[in-house]
Every structure is written in C-alpha cells, then in structure tokens.
Design goal:
Region (Disordered): 334-357
Organism: Nitratireductor kimnyeongensis
CATH architecture of the largest domain: Alpha-Beta Barrel
Radius of gyration: 20 Å
Number of strands: 17
Helix content: 25-40%
Cofactor: Mg(2+)
Structural class: alpha/beta
CATH topology of the largest domain: TIM Barrel
Oligomer: single chain
CATH class of the largest domain: Alpha Beta
Strand content: 15-25%
Order of helices and strands: EEEHEHHHEHEHEEHEHEHEHHEHEEEEHE
Number of helices: 13
Shape: globular
Largest sheet: 5 strands, antiparallel
Protein name: Mandelate racemase/muconate lactonizing enzyme family protein
Domain Mandelate racemase/muconate lactonizing enzyme C-terminal: 143-238
CATH superfamily of the largest domain: Enolase-like C-terminal domain
C-alpha cells in the first residue's frame, strides 16, 4: 500500500489561439490531480473536457481524491476499480472523465516510487511506434492546402498523415491530391469526424480504398452502432473509431464484432490508463490494433506494455502545458523516455493559473 501525505485537484482553462481539428475545438478545461506520498514521491495526472465546461468534472475529481486518495491507497488498478464501483448509482459521464486524472496520477506515483518508467511499471519495455501527423489538418482545407500540410510534416520526419474529410464530393479530390503529392512508401488515412450518414460513409470508404488509404476514422457517429455493422459488412477499407466512446462497455461491440480494425481510445473518455491498457489486451485477442487519441508522448508508455499499439497520433493540443514530451526519431517513430514515471511536468506559467478545486 502507498500512503498519501498530500493530494490536490486544480482546474486550468486552456484557451487555444485558433480552433483546431475536425471538430474546431477552441479551448480545453484541464483537470490536474497531484499526489505526494510519505516518502516525498509525487504523481501528476490530468484529464480534460474538450470545448470547455469542465467545472463539474473537476468537482467529481475532488470528491474522488477525498474519498479514495487519502491515507493508504492500493496499486493503481485496484484503486481504479474501487472508484469505478461507485458509479453504479450516478453513471459514467463526468465521473469517468475525472477518474482519468486520478488514475494517471496513481500510475505516475507508482512508477516514480519504484524508480522506473511508466511503461515498465505497467509490465512492458520501451519500443518505437510509428507516429502519424494529424495536427494542422482541418475539414475546411482545399486539396492544395492539405498537400502543403502533409509535405510540411513530411519534412519534419513523419511518415504517415491523416487529413480531414468533410463528407462531401471534394473529399475524393483532396485524398487523391494528397496521395499523389506523397511518396509511395508513405501511409495515408483520413478522419471524417462523424460527419457522414451511412450512404455518405459507404461512398467515402470507396474513395479511400481507391486512393490506397490505410483506414477511415469515424465515418459515422459513435452512436450509430447499426450503421457500423452495415459498414463493416459491406466495405473493404479499414474502419477506425473509439475516441468518443465512453467506458469499456461501449467499446466491446466494436471489438468483439470486429466493427473496427483500429480502435482509438481517449484518455478522458475511457477513464484513464488502466482501462485503456485493459481494452488493448481485449483488442489483442481479436487482432485489432490500438491507435490512441492524441497525446503520443503519454501513450508511448502504454505501447511499452501493449504490443498491439500500432500507431501514435501527433495532434498537438495539451503539449504546450507540459515539459518532458519525447520526440520522434528520424524514422518518424516514438519511444517512451527512460526517466521514472511518465516524465511530464506542468509548466510554471500554467501552475500559476491553476484554480484550486
């Protein structure tokens, strides 16, 4: 058991200079949990609400810390189960998003107190995983602008790219243009950000196949389970999805029925590193790859412990708030760092702006 000497929860409203991604996110509310044990070892965790509105989640995190992270606490996976067991009356929602911050802090503290990297504490060893470029693309781009973004990221060393689709005829022109602009040994994917209906998704899957894409991400809304069943049965292009699914139960049909070839869990929506590691193990039984939703420098540690993490996504969003992110190598691959824990520290300017909860 680990004995906690101090625990804190804070909220940081993080405003972006310009909206980013296919959803046009303009700001993020970041929930920070910090734990210190009796020996002075510390653990830092965070979760987030994209688009803002994270005050309720921060209060949920405060309650979880007060109930479960004072005095003696069990190892991270047991702590996660203890907290999650209380959601049977109140549901997932902000509860699960809040638990992601506590879970990450507990894993960081566990690995720091043992003096090993997070991925090693999870039972793995560092290994390089390819990174694909996702940041910089948006659904309003012309084909020429998408090509410029891809070529700029190619110059930075990345070897795969994911431009945005908008569920319109121009998608085929854009994908063909980017495919033509890139060398033949470069992988190309696309992200529809849930913009298509079933007919549009089937058309987009055909366009993706014709242009040699590796996968199409979120061709349908995450709630369209029957649509995904129809799409998986009729399309010969790989489907990727998962970032908007909350909890392991929501993920299971996509894995057990092989509705997704690539599953993309989100740290906040899944409730932390513990369930993502478990989802990765379940996906492995069905030969499904894992490509976590953004935060490649954190998920490089999960890749250490889960061999089916096949891709990491470079979508810079929260990175400016923290120091210690690993960089990809000359082949566009990233490995977890060798320092204890996840290796991230909150920058002082953001620590000063944090609102205690």
């Amino acid at each position: 058991m680990t004995h906690i000497a101090n625990a804190s929860v804070s909220l940081i409203p993080f405003k972006l200079k310009t909206p980013v991604g296919g959803s046009g996110v303009g700001g993020v509310d970041v929930i920070i949990v910090e734990l210190t044990d009796m020996d002075g070892a510390t653990g830092l965790g965070f979760s987030y609400v994209l688009g803002g509105g994270g005050a309720v989640t921060a209060l949920a995190a405060r309650q979880q810390v007060e109930r479960f992270a004072s005095g003696a606490i069990p190892p991270p996976q047991a702590l996660w189960r203890n907290v999650a067991a209380t959601f049977n009356r109140t549901g997932l929602g902000p509860n699960l998003v809040a638990l992601a911050a506590l879970d990450m802090a507990a894993w960081d503290l566990e690995s720091r107190s043992r003096g090993v990297p997070l991925g090693v504490a999870m039972g793995g060893a560092a290994r390089p995983v390819p990174v694909y470029g996702s940041g910089g693309f948006n659904a309003a781009q012309t084909p020429d602008q998408a090509c410029e973004t891809a070529l700029r990221q190619l110059d930075l060393g990345l070897r795969a790219f994911k431009p945005r689709a908008r569920g319109a005829r121009i998608d085929a022109l854009l994908l063909a243009a980017v495919r033509k602009a890139l060398p033949d040994d470069i992988h190309l994917m696309t992200d529809a950000n849930e913009k298509c209906d079933l007919a549009g998704a089937m058309w987009l899957m055909s366009a993706a196949r014709d242009n040699g894409l590796l996968f199409v991400e979120e061709p349908l809304p995450s709630t369209a389970l029957e649509g995904y069943r129809a799409l998986a049965a009729r399309s010969d292009c790989a489907i990727a999805t998962g970032e908007h699914l909350q909890g392991r139960g929501a993920a299971l049909p996509y894995l057990s029925e092989r509705l997704a070839t690539v599953f993309q869990p989100d740290l906040a929506m899944m409730g932390g590193l513990t369930p993502i590691l478990e989802i990765s193990q379940i996906a492995a039984a069905f030969d499904i790859g894992i490509a976590p939703h953004f935060l490649p420098g954190l998920f490089a540690h999960v890749a250490s412990a889960a061999a089916n993490v096949t891709w990491l996504e470079d979508f810079p969003l929260l990175e400016p708030m923290f120091e210690g992110w690993p960089q990809w190598d000359a082949d566009g691959r990233m490995s977890a760092g060798g320092e204890p824990g996840h290796g991230l520290t909150l920058k002082e300017e953001y620590r000063r702006s944090a609102q205690s909860v």
